Amino acid sequence: MDLGLKGKKAIVCAASKGLGRACAISLAREGVDLVITARTASDLEKTAEEIRQMTGVKVIAVPGDISTEEGRAAALAACPEPDILVNNAGGPPHGDFREWDRDAWIKAIDQNMLAPIFLIKAVVDGMAARKFGRIVNITSASVKSPIPVLGMSNGARAGLTGFVAGLARQVAKDNVIINNILPGPFLTDRLRSGALAASKQRNVPVDEILAERAAGTPTGRVGDPAEFGDACAFLCSAKIGFIVGHNLLLDGGNFNSTIA
Q1: In the beta sheet, which residues pair with residue 38?
Q2: In which band, very low, low, confident or very high, does the pLDDT at 218 lie, cut at 50, 70 and 90?
Q3: Is the model's pLDDT at 46 over the cut of 80?
Q4: Contact criterion met (CB below 8 Å) for 202 and 215
Q5: What pTM did the predictor assign?
Q6: Residue 34 and residue 57: Cα distance in Å, rounded?
Q7: Which of 35, 239, 241, 251 could bridge across to 79 with cysteines, CB 3.0–4.6 Å?
Q8: Nearest Cα residue to 212 out of 242, 190, 231, 191
Protein backbone atom coordinates (compact mmCIF):
# COMPACT_ATOMS: atom_id res chain seq x y z
CA MET A 1 0.00 0.00 0.00
CA ASP A 2 1.37 3.40 -1.01
CA LEU A 3 0.98 5.67 2.01
CA GLY A 4 1.20 8.80 -0.14
CA LEU A 5 4.21 10.21 1.71
CA LYS A 6 6.92 10.35 -0.94
CA GLY A 7 8.65 13.74 -0.85
CA LYS A 8 7.22 14.74 2.53
CA LYS A 9 9.47 16.07 5.31
CA ALA A 10 9.52 14.80 8.89
CA ILE A 11 11.08 15.61 12.23
CA VAL A 12 11.57 12.44 14.29
CA CYS A 13 12.68 12.95 17.89
CA ALA A 14 14.91 10.61 19.92
CA ALA A 15 15.62 8.70 16.72
CA SER A 16 19.11 7.33 17.24
CA LYS A 17 17.88 4.11 18.86
CA GLY A 18 14.83 2.09 19.75
CA LEU A 19 11.33 3.09 18.74
CA GLY A 20 12.31 6.50 17.37
CA ARG A 21 14.88 4.91 15.07
CA ALA A 22 12.29 2.38 13.90
CA CYS A 23 9.85 5.18 13.08
CA ALA A 24 12.50 7.06 11.12
CA ILE A 25 13.37 3.95 9.09
CA SER A 26 9.74 3.19 8.25
CA LEU A 27 9.09 6.77 7.15
CA ALA A 28 12.28 6.83 5.07
CA ARG A 29 11.17 3.67 3.29
CA GLU A 30 8.07 5.60 2.23
CA GLY A 31 10.25 8.29 0.66
CA VAL A 32 10.10 10.82 3.51
CA ASP A 33 13.11 13.12 4.00
CA LEU A 34 14.13 13.28 7.64
CA VAL A 35 15.49 15.49 10.34
CA ILE A 36 16.35 13.22 13.26
CA THR A 37 17.30 14.29 16.77
CA ALA A 38 18.92 12.69 19.80
CA ARG A 39 21.34 13.72 22.51
CA THR A 40 24.32 11.56 21.53
CA ALA A 41 25.81 12.88 18.29
CA SER A 42 27.82 9.77 17.41
CA ASP A 43 24.84 7.42 17.74
CA LEU A 44 22.62 9.84 15.84
CA GLU A 45 24.99 10.22 12.90
CA LYS A 46 25.47 6.47 12.74
CA THR A 47 21.71 5.99 12.46
CA ALA A 48 21.43 8.79 9.89
CA GLU A 49 24.05 7.16 7.68
CA GLU A 50 22.41 3.75 8.01
CA ILE A 51 19.08 5.20 6.88
CA ARG A 52 20.72 7.05 3.96
CA GLN A 53 22.38 3.86 2.79
CA MET A 54 19.23 1.82 3.31
CA THR A 55 16.72 4.13 1.60
CA GLY A 56 18.48 6.92 -0.29
CA VAL A 57 16.40 9.67 1.33
CA LYS A 58 17.85 12.90 2.71
CA VAL A 59 18.61 12.58 6.42
CA ILE A 60 19.85 15.48 8.55
CA ALA A 61 21.13 14.61 12.02
CA VAL A 62 20.61 17.35 14.61
CA PRO A 63 22.16 16.45 17.97
CA GLY A 64 20.55 18.02 21.00
CA ASP A 65 18.18 17.62 23.90
CA ILE A 66 14.64 18.00 22.56
CA SER A 67 13.38 18.79 26.07
CA THR A 68 15.22 22.13 25.92
CA GLU A 69 14.40 25.27 23.95
CA GLU A 70 17.82 25.05 22.28
CA GLY A 71 17.27 21.46 21.18
CA ARG A 72 13.86 22.22 19.72
CA ALA A 73 15.12 25.34 17.96
CA ALA A 74 17.93 23.39 16.31
CA ALA A 75 15.55 20.73 14.96
CA LEU A 76 13.10 23.36 13.69
CA ALA A 77 15.89 25.36 12.05
CA ALA A 78 16.81 22.25 10.05
CA CYS A 79 13.17 21.61 9.10
CA PRO A 80 11.03 24.72 9.66
CA GLU A 81 8.01 23.41 7.72
CA PRO A 82 7.66 19.70 8.48
CA ASP A 83 4.77 17.71 7.10
CA ILE A 84 5.22 15.12 9.84
CA LEU A 85 6.26 15.38 13.48
CA VAL A 86 7.01 12.30 15.58
CA ASN A 87 7.35 13.29 19.21
CA ASN A 88 9.43 10.95 21.31
CA ALA A 89 11.69 11.12 24.34
CA GLY A 90 13.23 8.75 26.81
CA GLY A 91 11.17 8.04 29.87
CA PRO A 92 11.92 9.14 33.44
CA PRO A 93 13.62 6.70 35.82
CA HIS A 94 11.89 3.87 37.62
CA GLY A 95 11.38 4.19 41.35
CA ASP A 96 9.19 5.08 44.30
CA PHE A 97 7.48 8.49 44.15
CA ARG A 98 8.60 9.14 47.73
CA GLU A 99 12.16 9.44 46.42
CA TRP A 100 11.42 12.09 43.76
CA ASP A 101 11.78 15.79 44.49
CA ARG A 102 10.30 18.69 42.57
CA ASP A 103 13.28 18.95 40.21
CA ALA A 104 12.84 15.31 39.17
CA TRP A 105 9.15 15.90 38.44
CA ILE A 106 9.83 19.08 36.45
CA LYS A 107 12.43 17.27 34.36
CA ALA A 108 9.93 14.49 33.60
CA ILE A 109 7.20 16.96 32.67
CA ASP A 110 9.59 18.96 30.47
CA GLN A 111 10.69 15.80 28.70
CA ASN A 112 7.47 13.85 28.28
CA MET A 113 4.76 16.51 28.26
CA LEU A 114 5.94 20.05 27.57
CA ALA A 115 8.57 19.29 24.89
CA PRO A 116 6.03 17.65 22.56
CA ILE A 117 3.47 20.37 23.27
CA PHE A 118 5.95 23.13 22.35
CA LEU A 119 6.99 21.31 19.18
CA ILE A 120 3.34 20.91 18.20
CA LYS A 121 2.82 24.62 18.90
CA ALA A 122 5.73 25.46 16.59
CA VAL A 123 4.47 23.46 13.60
CA VAL A 124 0.71 23.02 13.80
CA ASP A 125 -0.38 26.35 12.29
CA GLY A 126 1.94 25.94 9.31
CA MET A 127 0.58 22.45 8.74
CA ALA A 128 -2.96 23.82 8.87
CA ALA A 129 -2.13 26.55 6.36
CA ARG A 130 -0.68 23.96 3.96
CA LYS A 131 -3.66 21.64 4.57
CA PHE A 132 -1.50 18.67 5.49
CA GLY A 133 0.04 17.58 8.75
CA ARG A 134 0.57 14.39 10.68
CA ILE A 135 1.66 14.38 14.31
CA VAL A 136 2.32 11.16 16.20
CA ASN A 137 3.20 11.23 19.87
CA ILE A 138 4.95 8.19 21.31
CA THR A 139 3.65 7.87 24.86
CA SER A 140 3.28 4.61 26.80
CA ALA A 141 0.88 1.78 27.55
CA SER A 142 1.00 3.18 31.09
CA VAL A 143 -1.39 5.92 29.92
CA LYS A 144 -4.12 3.25 29.88
CA SER A 145 -2.76 0.95 32.57
CA PRO A 146 -0.44 2.77 35.01
CA ILE A 147 2.80 1.07 36.01
CA PRO A 148 3.53 1.63 39.72
CA VAL A 149 7.31 2.03 39.37
CA LEU A 150 6.87 4.55 36.52
CA GLY A 151 4.92 7.19 38.39
CA MET A 152 6.57 10.19 36.71
CA SER A 153 6.01 8.69 33.28
CA ASN A 154 2.39 7.86 34.14
CA GLY A 155 1.73 11.44 35.16
CA ALA A 156 3.60 13.36 32.47
CA ARG A 157 2.42 11.22 29.56
CA ALA A 158 -1.18 11.27 30.77
CA GLY A 159 -0.96 15.07 30.79
CA LEU A 160 0.18 15.09 27.16
CA THR A 161 -2.60 12.67 26.24
CA GLY A 162 -5.23 14.98 27.73
CA PHE A 163 -3.86 17.98 25.87
CA VAL A 164 -3.75 16.13 22.55
CA ALA A 165 -7.32 14.88 22.97
CA GLY A 166 -8.58 18.45 22.81
CA LEU A 167 -6.21 19.83 20.19
CA ALA A 168 -6.62 16.95 17.72
CA ARG A 169 -10.28 17.80 17.28
CA GLN A 170 -9.59 21.48 16.71
CA VAL A 171 -7.18 21.06 13.78
CA ALA A 172 -8.55 17.98 11.99
CA LYS A 173 -10.67 20.14 9.68
CA ASP A 174 -7.42 21.46 8.18
CA ASN A 175 -6.14 17.91 7.52
CA VAL A 176 -3.78 18.08 10.48
CA ILE A 177 -4.17 14.69 12.11
CA ILE A 178 -2.81 14.02 15.58
CA ASN A 179 -2.69 10.58 17.21
CA ASN A 180 -0.71 8.81 19.92
CA ILE A 181 0.96 5.40 19.96
CA LEU A 182 1.18 3.64 23.31
CA PRO A 183 3.98 1.05 23.33
CA GLY A 184 4.05 -1.90 25.63
CA PRO A 185 7.10 -4.18 25.85
CA PHE A 186 9.35 -3.72 22.83
CA LEU A 187 12.91 -4.98 22.62
CA THR A 188 14.66 -1.66 23.20
CA ASP A 189 17.39 -0.35 25.49
CA ARG A 190 14.63 0.89 27.81
CA LEU A 191 13.24 -2.62 28.19
CA ARG A 192 16.71 -4.06 28.73
CA SER A 193 17.53 -1.49 31.42
CA GLY A 194 14.31 -2.31 33.26
CA ALA A 195 15.12 -6.01 33.00
CA LEU A 196 18.61 -5.37 34.33
CA ALA A 197 17.21 -3.51 37.35
CA ALA A 198 14.77 -6.35 38.01
CA SER A 199 17.50 -8.98 37.66
CA LYS A 200 19.63 -7.24 40.28
CA GLN A 201 16.68 -6.86 42.62
CA ARG A 202 15.63 -10.49 42.30
CA ASN A 203 19.10 -11.94 41.73
CA VAL A 204 18.09 -13.78 38.55
CA PRO A 205 19.60 -13.55 35.03
CA VAL A 206 18.48 -10.75 32.73
CA ASP A 207 17.50 -13.28 30.06
CA GLU A 208 15.11 -14.88 32.52
CA ILE A 209 13.45 -11.52 33.18
CA LEU A 210 13.08 -10.86 29.45
CA ALA A 211 11.65 -14.35 28.93
CA GLU A 212 9.09 -13.64 31.66
CA ARG A 213 8.07 -10.41 29.94
CA ALA A 214 7.65 -12.27 26.67
CA ALA A 215 5.64 -15.08 28.22
CA GLY A 216 3.42 -12.57 29.99
CA THR A 217 1.90 -11.24 26.77
CA PRO A 218 -0.87 -13.02 24.84
CA THR A 219 1.48 -13.08 21.84
CA GLY A 220 4.14 -14.88 23.85
CA ARG A 221 6.83 -12.40 22.84
CA VAL A 222 7.94 -8.81 23.15
CA GLY A 223 7.49 -6.45 20.24
CA ASP A 224 9.90 -5.88 17.38
CA PRO A 225 10.64 -2.14 17.01
CA ALA A 226 10.15 -2.50 13.24
CA GLU A 227 6.48 -3.32 13.89
CA PHE A 228 6.16 -0.13 15.87
CA GLY A 229 7.83 1.91 13.12
CA ASP A 230 5.41 0.62 10.51
CA ALA A 231 2.43 1.50 12.72
CA CYS A 232 3.83 5.01 13.06
CA ALA A 233 4.25 5.34 9.29
CA PHE A 234 0.65 4.23 8.82
CA LEU A 235 -0.59 6.95 11.19
CA CYS A 236 1.43 9.47 9.17
CA SER A 237 -0.20 8.33 5.93
CA ALA A 238 -2.02 10.70 3.61
CA LYS A 239 -4.88 8.19 3.74
CA ILE A 240 -5.81 8.20 7.42
CA GLY A 241 -7.49 11.60 7.64
CA PHE A 242 -10.51 10.21 9.49
CA ILE A 243 -8.47 8.69 12.36
CA VAL A 244 -8.38 11.58 14.83
CA GLY A 245 -7.18 11.75 18.41
CA HIS A 246 -6.71 8.03 18.92
CA ASN A 247 -4.44 6.20 21.35
CA LEU A 248 -3.16 3.16 19.46
CA LEU A 249 -2.12 0.56 22.02
CA LEU A 250 0.71 -1.70 20.83
CA ASP A 251 1.25 -4.07 23.72
CA GLY A 252 0.73 -7.58 22.33
CA GLY A 253 -2.73 -7.74 23.92
CA ASN A 254 -1.57 -7.12 27.49
CA PHE A 255 -4.30 -4.59 28.26
CA ASN A 256 -7.29 -6.81 29.02
CA SER A 257 -10.44 -4.99 28.01
CA THR A 258 -13.45 -5.50 25.77
CA ILE A 259 -12.82 -2.03 24.38
CA ALA A 260 -9.10 -1.21 24.24
Answers
A1: 63
A2: very high
A3: yes
A4: no
A5: 0.94
A6: 8
A7: 35
A8: 191
By the 10 Å C-beta count (0-12 exposed, 13-18 middle, 19+ buried), 200 is classed as exposed
Query: What pLDDT is recorded for position 94?
Result: 83
- Longest CA span, the chain: 56
C-alpha distances out from residue 168 to 94, 102, 130, Å: 30, 30, 17
Query: Which of 128, 85, 152, 132 is closest to 240 using CA atoms?
Result: 132
Find the helix packing angle between 225-235 and 18-29, rounded to 10°: 50
User: Distance between CA atoms of 260 and 256, rounded to whole angstroms?
Assistant: 8
Strand partners, 165: none
Whether 149 and 139 have beta carbons less than 8 Å apart is answered as no
Cβ-proximal residues to 152 (8 Å cutoff; 6+ apart), any chain: 92, 93, 97, 100, 104, 105, 108, 112
What is the per-residue DSSP string for the chain? ---S-TT-EEEESS-SSHHHHHHHHHHHHTT-EEEEEES-HHHHHHHHHHHHHHH---EEEEES-TTSHHHHHHHHHH-SS-SEEEE--PPPPPS-GGG--HHHHHHHHIIIIIHHHHHHHHHHHHHHHHT-EEEEEE--GGGTS--GGGHHHHHHHHHHHHHHHHHHHHHGGGTEEEEEEEE-SBSSHHHHHHHHHHHHHHT--HHHHHHHHHHTSTTSSPBPHHHHHHHHHHHTSTT-TT--S-EEEESTT-S--S--
Residue 213, pLDDT score: 82
